[in-house]
Amino acid sequence: MFQPELEALEREPLERLVLERMRTTLGRLARAPAHARRLGGIRAEDIRRPEDWRRLPFLGKAELRDAYPFGLACAREDGYRRIHMSSGTTGNPILNPYTAADVEQWGEVMARCYVAAGVGPRDVIQITPSFGLFTGGFGFHYGAERLGAMVIPTGAGRTSLQLKLMRDLRATVVTAIATYPLRLLEVAREERFDLATLALRVGIFGSETWSDELRARIERDLRIRAFDIIGMTETGGPGLGIDCAARAGIHVWEDHYHVEIVDAATGAVLPDGAEGELVVSTLTRAGLPLVRYRTHDLTRVVSRARCDCGRTALRLDRLRGRTDDMVIFKGVNFYPRQVETVLLRQAGVSHEYQIVLDSAGGGERMTILVETEPGCDPAVAARVRRELHDLLALSPEVRLCALGELERPVGKAVRVVDRRATT
Ligand SMILES: [Zn+2]
Known about the structure:
The protein has 2 domains: about 1-325, ANL, N-terminal domain (Rossmann fold, 3-Layer(aba) Sandwich); about 325-420, GMP Synthetase, Chain A, domain 3. The strands form 5 sheets. A 9-stranded mixed β-sheet has the order 4-3-5-6-7-8-9-14-13, with helices on both faces. The protein is built from 11 helices and 21 strands. It is of the alpha/beta class. The mean pLDDT is about 95. The site of zinc ion has 7 residues, from loops.
């Protein structure tokens, strides 16, 4: 562990620390008029036990957008050292200003994540997310500096060069958005690059929803152990949590983040084990403290007991999807990840797929385009159709494509193309 005294803290002192930090956070917000108005008069001293936190109102994405650039920012008097921004598609972006203490905090939680993934000061870490407004590149960088490891800051793109540097500089760790390893594998195949010449041992991937089946394929083909890291611009970037060698859920650093799982429709807090929307409050962030921020991510609390790895930080299930990713087709609700799980169970089927919905000529149609390897049994299409019907009551058309036929997006994968008329 990077900080065993905190990561393995017993539940009781941990909850005392959380309570103290909840009060500090509220005290900080009370001095910011925009927040004070939102909080409806609830003050630090009203929080007597962690459950009292539930009395506070939720914070939504729209409110953060409307607050652009600094409407809900705090600690301006301390001076900001960094700005990061979410890659929103419409309207104002969500901006997160970091004080010096926030940059420190980020480095600390990221260093914990590295150590949970078995990474240490002797490792050589290749950072493939971009260094810019996106939080990926810098987050992995600050964590690596804290750890004292060597960094290869390649940033995004230039996949051939990535492979060359990875091999020649003996990178042992690769960090990336979750579908980027697929690009590495694809380019390696095209260029007949021998993956056996790499010294890679560990991959740390996040920022997209990826299935266990996809993880198994990446691990097999890149010959690494892959870890799932979570976090978002609003919470200060990646580093909210990561899974450990025990692979028993994603540890959330509870002394920095308070998480709740709520019913997405009613907002009611759900008991452990029940799936719902992840709500995050920050306990140590100064520039943009979050109180009960609705992330739209779907997950559940797996356990609050001590993990086999020794950490006591609660564990979440891997993210299943986002409330806004849910597809409704002919009255059936499903998430792209569920389709991915069925596809990747089949031999000869690639990880490149797209779910196309359209309503041309009346009536809704769903087509799954999926690339297959040469020599793949064509009967796989019927099998996918049958399994999707059994699992989700969907009856899509399944079209097998040749490798390389589907368009490759720059950045995050595009899994659903919805061309249905919106009237
Ligand atoms: Zn663990």
